[in-house]
Amino acid sequence: MIRIMILVLLFMYNAMIAQDFQGVATYQTKRMVDFSMEDSKVDSEMQKQIKEMLAKKFQKEYTLQFNSISSIYKEEINLDAPQTSIPGVELVIVGASSSDILYKNTKEKRYTNQRDMFGKTFLVKSLLKDRKWKLAQETKKIGNYTCYKATATLTVNKYNNTVSDDNTNREPKEVVQTLTVWYTPEIPVSNGPSRYWGLPGLILEANDGEETILCTKIVLNPKKAIDIKEPKKGKIVTEEKFNAILVKKQKEMEDTMPHGDGNSIEFKIGG
């Protein structure tokens, strides 16, 4: 009887310690820019400048505030970041906003994504995907942490990246990509950047073939306690409903924005 009581007390103590475990991880993102331009008026030097501008647009910094069961992932705004622009080129990124907040609850296997789009706020709610991770014995160091490799497959909608005066092929195509991540059991939370999760340790690096997310800093159990709250503001929609709204708004923009004035190039990127 005494032994059982001791085991129960130890279990309760460990559960309390896990619940109080907190941390903040900082991530930087880079995206591979792959597109072509059919317009013969756009020379190779201009195309090079546009690719560099796009690459800088996707170099962002995020923070992941986490405890043992939940997290908040959001972009950190860098007011000192250099503004890049090219005369005659207009870049429109549809669907992505620096004020977006992603809440994950790994215990309940669900997420809430607060998304701002065209002056409206949405709460996208859905279940987290259970990925079929393939664990490997391969290791590497990221900072001071020993990380293990894991892979999974992703099915994503990919748009045609060819830009032309008559770019009518805007329907997405489903493609299968390999997701490679590196996680550390030294930080025992089943979490990571973006919607990545489901491994026996915090994911410090992720690469889906187009975007790389790399952890650059970790603070465990910071002096100032972290208050992780699920976003409540916005119209509740499913992921499917939000994607349908996004496609509709993008088509409306294409119909209303002027095209082909001979002096400007316009292209849009889904966020």
Descriptive report:
This protein is an alpha+beta fold. It has 3 helices and 16 strands. It has a 12-stranded mixed beta sheet, with helices on both faces.
Main sheet attributes: strand count, strand direction, barrel closure: 12 strands, mixed
- Unreliable segments (pLDDT under 50, ≥5 consecutive)? 1-17, 260-271
Q: What helical percentage do the residues reach? A: 10-25%
- Please give the alpha-carbon distance between the first and last residues: 58 Å
Count of alpha/pi helices: 3
Alpha carbon gyration radius: 22 Å
Helix and strand element order: HEEHEEEEEEEEEEEEEHE
The averaged pLDDT comes out at 78
* Strand-residue proportion: 35-45%
The coarse silhouette is globular
- Number of DSSP E strands: 16
Derived structural class: alpha+beta
